Amino acid sequence: MPQMDRYKDRPVYIEFIAKEEFNKLPYEDRFTIVFITSGSMNVKLNDYPIKIAAPSILCLHKEDKIEVLENQNVASQSFCFHPDFFNTAYFSEDKGYMSNSLKIETGLSLFKKDDISTGVFGVTEKAYPKLYEWFFIMGTEVYAQSDPLWVCRIKKYLIQILGLLEELNSHSEKSPVDLVLEYIHTNYSDRISLEDLINCAHLNRVSLNKIFKDLTGFTAMGYLLKYRLKVAESLLTHTDMSLNEIARATGFEYDTYFIKQFTSKEGMTPTEFRNSSREFAFIQH
């Protein structure tokens, strides 16, 4: 059943299941992410047998078929959402609740199944606390609806969860740079110093930056800034969160510093970027 937004009197097609039993998956017309926190199980996913062990996240497309063959003390929770939830929407004072043609692209690749990807993604020890925190808060917001921006906040956490999974999945090797990338993608919302990245890579500053620049085109701290701004762009486009909230969510201590860095790198202020991305979407639509 959809959630009713008590602030804007509209249905929001999302659900959070605190204890997933796997007997109704996949949910009709929904994408589902299942966070498996303990135990293991053997399943048949689209007629292909696989084993899923905690901690891991299972991403199910609405057309997937899953059958549990053996369940060994699995504890899990799930969040499901209608594909339209990935459309950007916001509230206009003169036109009311509005949707446009912009779609969130972050993480959509995780739901595709092929010979390489099964939709099951292992969660590393470093990423687990952050994913658990985001998943927990997202589930709490579904029921609490703590303020008029609760839907935006859920989108924020969904973007962060799927973005982290996508980045972790694209860097399966564990070279010094991969370790730093994993650290950045997991902890970018926190305060990070160059010393933190040096300790993570077990390299000195010169060696870390040289290897990092050869592979990414950026120094380690330069890449951190670039990634923070990338996440900020998604939040500006797809949510109505304030600049101060977005600054805190992406690791900038003050919104003034966030605005300065964003304007310097993007050539426009965050507000100008937000307005231009939405105006472009309506023109395209």
Automatic annotation (TrEMBL):
> Which Pfam families does the entry link to?
HTH_18 (PF12833)
Gene3D superfamilies for the chain: Homeodomain-like (1.10.10.60)
PROSITE patterns for the chain: HTH_ARAC_FAMILY_1, HTH_ARAC_FAMILY_2
Q: Which SMART domains match?
A: HTH_ARAC
Looking at the record, the residues that make up the HTH araC/xylS-type domain are 178-276
Origin: domain of life: Bacteria
Keywords in alphabetical order: DNA-binding, Transcription, Transcription regulation
What is the residue range of the signal peptide feature?
A: none
What this protein is called in its record is HTH araC/xylS-type domain-containing protein
Q: Which organism is it from?
A: Clostridium zeae
